[in-house]
Prior knowledge:
Pfam families: DUF7781. This protein has one helix at 13-16; strands at residues 17-20, 25-34, 37-46, 52-61, 68-73, 78-83, 86-87, 92-101, 106-115, 123-134, 137-148, 151-153, 164-166, 169-184.
Amino acid sequence: MESNLNGDQPTSWDELYNINLVPSELFLKFRKGIQGFRVGLNLEFYNAPINECQAKLVLKPLASDRRWKFIYEPLRQDVRVLSKKIPITKFLNLQVGVGHSFQLHATGWKWKLSTCLGGDGVSRIRNKTTLGLCPGMDLRFGWRAEYVLPEIQGALGTGEPAFNMNSGRLQASLDRVEAILTHNSDT
Length: 187
């Protein structure tokens, strides 16, 4: 999409409107609620740019005001504790984490500012949508849309065209599909 933002006129509708429904990430998540905590096993399959599989063990509180989650990656031998995303403004979040790599014998911390909006000269939305199939089974879709809204303008007596239309652009993709299987126990 960025290649057409420099003023070049697109030659076809395919360049104006492009929707990719082939996800580059497939996740299978198993979750179990145990005494106020959620224990999870995530199997993450990445298709692009290289084929890769990762496994993660996740522990986090079930409380609605949970403030952290613990992640262990056995293949990489990494341990992390991440804060929940802390809202700074309506559209801006901060997340902080501390981690240790047993392979590298190193400890460090990270922070990340994130938003669902933004972009360079183009409007962008990133979001996750969850679809509950039945109790204990959900599908979550991570999708992205970059767009320029259509614009119609005109003028009379100014030497400009009486009618001019920019048809806008849309590039959307389904980036991630997650199958989430949850089992809650009363003990």
